[in-house]
Amino acid sequence: MNKIINYLDPMVHLGEKKYSILFPFLINFFVCILSEAYAYSIAHNPMAVGAYSIFINVALIIYFAFREGIRGGFTSTFFSIAYYFYIIFTRHYTGSLLTSGIGTIIVLAFLYSFLGFTIGWLKQQIDTLIEIQADERKRLETIIQQLPIGAIITDDAGRITNINKQVATILGFTIPIGFTLGKNMIENVRINGKRLLPNRALSFNVLSTGKAIINREQIYEHTNKGKVYLRIDSSPILNSKKKIIAAATTISDITRQKKLEQQKDDFIAMASHELKTPITSIKVFTQVLGKHFKDKKDSESQRILQKMDKNLDKLDELVRLLLDVSRIEQGKLQTKPEKFFVRELVEDIIEDIQPITRHKLILDWRTTLYVYADKERIRQVLVNLITNAIKYSPHADKIIMRSKKNRNFVEISVEDFGIGISKKEQNKIFGRFYQADSNNTYPGLGLGLYISQQIIKLNGGKMWVKSEEGKGSTFYFRLPIHKEK
Ligand code: ADP
């Protein structure tokens, strides 16, 4: 019975794009025979097939046009009109009755054709739209399944509409389509006894705020693999009216990458630590040797030794940088804050650097404030910014250092007129080992800015850059003003 209802229900056939002539042909034929049987055998009046048959024919045209498209509409129209002619001739219409009958049939033929065509055409348009939508869905589904990372698409209520098999591989269990990643971020929500991704509220946040979440790292306890590191990204999907209609979330397993990073950090920590002691001893020996050569008045050896000492200083500086990086990574970089006058510190640094550079170091100082921070670390930051400014402005001749008060902070800047940094690179230069210049025109490790930014953060401040390629850069940082207690 259900099968018959399904077969007859035109809504079930929406989107099928199969238009049969046979079915409407048979039904229309059958209805005509029924009409004739009614007129002759039940009503015993050949003229009894009047208004009701028009009603039935219109209903059939609408039904078949909506079920079988234009073909269905026209087949029913054809049958209805043919039947009307059949009635006129079998009931022997004559004279004015015949002419008005034929006139009515012609008018009805036009009306029926119009009805059948319009509804049939609309039905076919709907089918095409449904087909396009289904194709799009299939395309999206295939793309999602092909992705090498886990992908989840939710509707605007956080209900999963698409999810690929990689999610199950990464998490160790399957989340069914239709599951709602709702707002109640509860750690112990389980599916088949397995704890769900801890950050199930993530896509919900995206849906409610409309803001993408990028590169969220999360530790996850996998049933078989144990602790795994996940990277999660989620962004809203907006329709043409900028309304949030869905959210797309990707999950990737970055455990391998994290382990490699950890190995690299461990190596840096160990190497820099191990290198520190021999460098210090060599430094002591060079001093002893220096004294020895001086006593012997051996100026050639003294000159070579001085060169050696200079290179040793460079090596020492490198090791210091590496040590700082590993301290930062391990959260062991310590600060010893004190009250000091920044202007004095900057003047002191200028005194050291000015003799060895042709750039004019200009001070444009607008504050007479004390800050509360680790003076030696801030010296390290300032030296790094000034030496960078010199290094990356080979054709300029000045560097300007400024300061101004900004609420509870002293804002300090170092401006150069050198090569500048592109917008794209500006976000990256504070990263570890990052060098904007990939050709290695300028020597360096790409650690100075990373360490400087971390030092400023540790001292309660913030560091940023404004720059235009080819025109120069200004590095800013701010430190809290010292408050007298
Ligand atoms: P390093 O100078 O050792 O390469 P940093 O961490 O100090 O490392 O700087 C990172 C990168 O930022 C540099 O490689 C350079 O490309 C860019 N950079 C830093 N300071 C400037 C500047 N004043 N002008 C232009 N580029 C700069």
Secondary structure layout:
Blueprint: H1 2-8, H2 22-42, H3 51-90, H4 95-146, E1 150-155, E2 160-163, H5 165-171, E3 190-191, E4 194-195, H6 202-209, E5 213-222, E6 226-238, E7 244-253, H7 255-295, H8 299-329, E8 338-341, H9 342-353, E9 360-365, E10 370-373, H10 375-391, E11 398-406, E12 409-415, H11 423-426, H12 448-458, E13 462-468, E14 472-480
Parallel strand pairs: 9-11
Antiparallel strand pairs: 1-2, 1-7, 3-4, 5-6, 6-7, 8-10, 11-12, 12-14, 13-14
The chain binds adenosine-5'-diphosphate (ADP).
Characterization of this structure:
Residues 184-188 have low confidence and may be disordered. The strands form 4 sheets. The protein has a 5-stranded antiparallel β-sheet. The protein is α+β, with helices and mostly antiparallel strands and 485 residues long. It has helices spanning 2-8, 22-42, 51-90, 95-146, 165-171, 202-209, 255-295, 299-329, 342-353, 375-391, 423-426, 448-458; strands at 150-155, 160-163, 190-191, 194-195, 213-222, 226-238, 244-253, 338-341, 360-365, 370-373, 398-406, 409-415, 462-468, 472-480. Strand 11 (398-406) and strand 12 (409-415) form a beta hairpin. The N and C termini lie far apart (89 Å). The longest helix is centred in the N-terminal third of the chain and has 52 residues, at 95-146. The structure holds adenosine-5'-diphosphate. Adenosine-5'-diphosphate binds next to helix 10 and helix 12.
Measured by DSSP, the beta-strand proportion falls in 15-25%
Count of helical stretches:
12
Shape: elongated
The parts where pLDDT drops under 50 for at least 5 residues are 184-188
Terminal Cα span:
89 Å
Radius of gyration: 42 Å
List the bound ligands. adenosine-5'-diphosphate
* Biggest β-sheet: strands ordered side by side in the sheet: 2-1-7-6-5
The total count of strands amounts to 14
Helix content: 40-55%
Q: What is the residue-averaged pLDDT?
A: 89
**What is the helix/strand order?**
HHHHEEHEEHEEEHHEHEEHEEHHEE
Sheet of most strands: 5 strands, antiparallel
Category from helices, strands and their pairing: alpha+beta
